[in-house]
Amino acid sequence: xxxxxxxxxxxxxxxxxxxxxxxxxxxxxxxxxxxxxxxxxxxxxxxxxxxxxxxxxxxxxxxxxxxxxxxxxxxxxxxxxxxxxxxxxxxxxxxxxxxxxxxxxxxxxxxxxxxxxxxxxxxxxxxxxxxxxxxxxxxxxxxxxxxxxxxxxxxxxxxxxxxxxxxxxxxxxxxxxxxxxxxxxx
Length: 186
Known about the structure:
Blueprint: E1 2-4, H1 11-21, H2 32-41, E2 48-52, H3 54-60, H4 62-78, E3 83-86, E4 94-98, H5 105-115, H6 126-136, E5 142-146, H7 148-154, H8 156-172, E6 181-185
Helix pairs in contact: 2-4, 3-4, 6-8, 7-8
């Protein structure tokens, strides 16, 4: 999961970004303490959390930055396998997207939205995916898809579309120093 904090300047905006990123809209925490309790009870907490815009956020909201660090430190104590990064740019991130839980095209789009930090307006279709990767977000330096064979078996059309669109994106950005690498693993 990638969360861009560069536009957040208050603890309230931070809470909104966390709620959006962790997809907890059905339960709306009113404070970071409530969010902390929600994260502690999560059945399937994220294995990777990448915060971008960290330097800007830390300068604009030092209290929120300290509270977020404390919250994430607690998460890492409960889940030592979790990977957490704080950086200024997505081009410094290497992320793994686990496809093994995908059971439908809708699940896949929800997962891509969350893991690649697509905006709330993301249309959950392949045209919207193209629009997102070509103009709305900056992709991480490396994207590693695991559980690819499961995806090909479960939703073969969506697996083909995802790979075709990413191949097209990589072909169009060939030679760009910020072009991501993409790998597909069983």
